[in-house]
Amino acid sequence: MEVELKFQSETRHIEFVTEVSDSLSKLVGFNETDRHRIALAVSESVANAVRHGNQFDTHKEVQVTFTATSDALQISVSDQGDGFDHSSLPDPRAPENLHKPGGRGVFIILNVMDSVGFNRMDGSMEVWMEKRLNL
Amino acid sequence: MKIEQRQVDGVSILSISGKITIGEGDIKVREKVADLLENGSNKLLMDIEGVNYIDSSGLTELVNCHSKTSDRGGQLKLLNPTPKVAELLFVTRLNSVFETFHDEGDAVASFA
Q1: Strand pairing of A115-121 and A61-68?
Q2: Which of A98, A107, A109, A113 to probe by mutation at the B interface, max B CB count within 10 Å?
Q3: Which domains, and CATH codes, for chain B?
Q4: I need a surface site. Which of A17, A28, B62, B91 has the fewest CB within 10 A?
Q5: What is the ipTM of this complex?
Q6: A119, A128 Cβ separation under 8 angstroms
Q7: Nearest-CB residue to B59 (from A12, A51, A104)
Q8: Out of B55, B63, B84, closest to residue A101 by CB
Q9: pLDDT digits (tens, 9 = 90+) for A43-62
Q10: Residue A71 has what DSSP assignment?
Q11: What domains sit in chain A, N to C, each tagged with a CATH number?
């Protein structure tokens, strides 16, 4: 099953997207802990797309595509921003960064999902992620 | 998201329930802590047993509140994080920033 959502760059849409994420996670058969992890990763990536990617420009869209299979949920989150190089992001766990306010979103996504990819294209940025059922 | 406040032995206990997320609970937490610090309270204990969801923006607010409280010569500690929140504190190593308790009496006594 594939579900595609497109919406303006506003954080108020995050709750709806995480509700869709939770419904699809249930459908695949994830337990409550993994459903929470997936919703968190989706929420973080959409928040990044709205805030850092599209910079709250409501003329720009965020697109989220969920692909549910029998044993996994794949999610793609795209924005219309300039993108970023995830490998250059500082480690928020480093002692010098621990007390800094931000910089944890991508790190959390990388930690709670099984696979995460970043595709920087001309005029857009896609974060792709997957969670697999532990059968 | 709801915050209830009470005072025990000079410690301001904030019982928070609901979500601390971008645009939802993060600003309420910030305003409540700023208000307490403004009024001279700097022994702050956040009871987050009722927080069922926190994201990186929520963590950012907790870190900001911790820093502002320290700047005022005070301390901000956490009480009763749920396993989900505790996992996030562990993954981000913020468990090394926040002193965390599972018993209110022990937490209050630690401010003495």
Answers
A1: unpaired
A2: A98
A3: 2-109 (3.30.750.24)
A4: B91
A5: 0.86
A6: yes
A7: A104
A8: B63
A9: 999 999 999 999 999 999 99
A10: S
A11: 2-132 (3.30.565.10)
